[in-house]
Amino acid sequence: MNRVRASCKFRVWLCVLCVLLPAVLGGCSGGNRDTGRTEGAGTGGEPQQSESHAGSELPETAADTSDHTPAPLVKIACVGDSLTWGQALNNTQSANPYPKVLQELLGTDGYLVGNFGASGRVMSEGYREATWDRSYNLTSTYQESLQFGADIVVICLGTNDAAKCDVSSEEGKQNFLKSARNLVEAYRSAGASEIYLCLPPYNSNSAYIRVLERRVMPLIRQAAQENGLELIDFYTPTNLHEEYLLSDSLHLTDAGYALMAETVFERITKDS
Question: How many C-beta atoms lie closer than 10 Å to residue 137's C-beta?
């Protein structure tokens, strides 16, 4: 009889345990059941956020008080004529003008390069033709270059002055120097901290090269000195290198534009 009672008691306790054990175990884990659920999910049908927190605002904690604002881009304005624009044959644009190649060399993390080349334009002010203004400062491209807000400006003008402008008389020389000074002052007023004047690339076109070498390049050097600027020399690395010239003997091949880009890249990064 005692054995039966003991057996019954055992069965009762066993049943009790079978009922209570899941509740006990559930109670132990119930407090953390939602720790893996994204806040806000499951109510109102809001989607769960990924662990990367992309596009979301993180809670304000001591670890998040630092400034995560990315550094501003250094803007570089490439100012000039068709050699900056990147003219190819038949008045088309090269697929790789030097400002584009310069952007590729610098990368996009810290720099933004703008191409502000205008074909056929000159440094000298006051030159107008029947249907268009030849002086660079009269173009809409010039206005766009000012609005760009460049930190660095690279000015490559002068090739067309050699063929289209008076750079031989004293009046013509003074106009060129004054025009260069006005251009530099305008970019300084627009916020540029570094400005370079450039010696244009070599060409073998007889209508340009002699005056460029004998008249225009000395004026560019003088303008740089008077305005406290450094020169970027495109002429020396291209001089007498016909392989860099197209059949018009004036504009450059892609290899020539790449050389221009490399020259600018080396100059603006030499101190970094």
Answer: 18
pLDDT in tens, 64-120: 445 566 678 999 999 999 999 999 999 899 999 999 999 999 998 899 999 999 999
> In Å, what is the CA distance from 55 to each residue of 47, 51, 63, 122?
13, 11, 18, 48
Cβ contact 258:101 at 8 Å: yes
pLDDT of residue 33: 34
Q: What are phi and psi of 117, to 5 degrees?
A: -85, 140
Q: Which amino acid is at 155?
A: I
CATH class of 74-269: alpha beta
Q: Give residue limits of the domains in the chain.
A: 74-269
**CA-to-CA dists, residue 225 to 81, 218, 253, angstroms:** 22, 11, 31
Q: Residue 48 corresponds to which tokens in the numbers above?
A: 């769960």
* Burial letters 214-226, b for 16+ CB under 10 A, else e: ebbbebbeebbee
Query: What's the pLDDT score for residue 66?
Result: 53
